[in-house]
Write a structure and sequence with these properties.
about 140 residues; alpha+beta; 5-stranded mixed sheet
């Protein structure tokens, strides 16, 4: 499994909790080598699928335990679900936006601690590889 981190400079805590995705098929099984472009596209596709699953789960009304209600009260919102707030997400457009953001320098990608600079260069992932997305913060007046 490949571990994904999302961080921002100057913040001790990650922007979102880390997660894992299955290792892409071996390069020998692919018609073309694995590139950063293909990896970002795959991660976006996995996240779009997870978003759709969360949306489907929110449609159901959940019976909450006393602990879940108490946690919700402490956070300021008790949510049993039961809403149909479907938001359409175009997977291709989302991947395009992520790739454009990389090209525009809005985030860096580090694979096992090494910065990746080109979308179309071959990358190598191992079973314990870590991919870090580092969101860059633009300075005012720069």
């Amino acid at each position: 499994m490949v571990t994904i981190h999302v961080r921002a400079p100057g913040r001790r805590r990650p922007l979102i909790p880390q997660w894992q995705i299955p290792l892409p098929p071996a390069a020998s099984d692919r018609a073309e080598p694995l590139t950063l472009r293909a990896l970002i596209t795959r991660i976006v596709a996995d996240e779009v699928a997870a978003f759709r699953a969360r949306q489907a789960d929110r449609r159901l009304v959940h019976v909450l335990t006393a602990g879940e209600i108490a946690d919700g009260v402490a956070r300021g919102r008790v949510d049993p679900g039961g809403r149909a707030l479907d938001q359409e997400v175009d997977e291709g457009r989302a991947a395009g936006t992520a790739l454009q953001a990389f090209e525009d320098g809005l985030f860096l990608v580090l694979i096992d601690g090494r910065e990746q600079r080109a979308l179309d260069e071959q990358i190598f992932l191992g079973p314990d590889s870590t991919v870090t997305f580092l969101r860059l913060v633009m300075l005012a007046g720069a």
